[in-house]
Amino acid sequence: MPAEDTVFWILYDKYMFWSILVGIFTFGWLFTAILRYRDGVEPDTTELDHIEVGAFPVDRHNTALEAAFYVLPTILVVWLTILALGSNTAVWDPDTEDSFEININAYQWYFEFEYTEPLTWEDTGTGINVQWGNGAVQVDWEDNPNVASFEVKIGSDTVEYEINENSTEMAPIATYDPGQYAHVKVFDSEGELLHTWMHIQRGKTFNTPSEPMIVPCDELVDATMKSKGPGDDDRNVGVQHAFWVPEWGMKEDFVPGLEAGTTLYFMPDDSGTYPIRCAEYCGLQHSVMTGQVQVVAREGTTCDFDSGVKKSGSGSSNSYGGGEM
Ligand SMILES: [Cu+2]
Asked: Do you find a cis peptide bond into 248, omega within 30 degrees of 0?
């Protein structure tokens, strides 16, 4: 069954609609004929005097009707073929003008996500807001009483702040540099992650299984996929792997030796965290080659999602609801 909302899902619906229509017509006609011309029942021959039970009506027939039996199904099949090819175009040749580009590299036995363009994102719907300004980061949490501490990371420096009763807290720390990785993570008293603000700089890499692939929602993701070997140069001479997100019905191979790599396009439209699997046997530890893709909202935006419940969370969360692509 294809994942909801994909071009294949829509195609499945269209094929199903026409199959049912043709099925009703065909079987309706079949059963009408079975009942009407069954043994022992003389058909009403006043209008069908040429019908002889068990014999093909060769003497008198309706040429236009017989031609229609061929022409109409042919038109239907040609049209369904064009629909199917259109879905291929949507998957393999989309308009990539405003796409989010990322590299996915496969090693034995993990995936590496390499950011070729920066991404700044923040959780929404948590009642917490992170703002940067004038050499300080400010965390507002008026709508969330559970906030107990937050952690600010810029580059390789991490600072932690305990929070008392104030509803806002200024952390006197230099404004983040867009060329460096930065995050602000807000926790409750149990150490549970409540809210994340993150800036991923160009050139940053995340590796599975401990780090997820983070992509923005409602944007076409244009992923270039290469198979890497140990101490790899540009020849991409790893082994075969396949990047698979089962809930999205999405899979693409890594092909060793293919210098330009392979390409995968997808547009996530719901926030959340979804499992990744390697779907091509790639050696002894193939079974542990897993990961997660996390769909987030760019800072200052929200994802279009139906339930109203934001599901993005820490990399270890298992909120796999509404797996749509
Ligand atoms: Cu693999």
From this structure: no
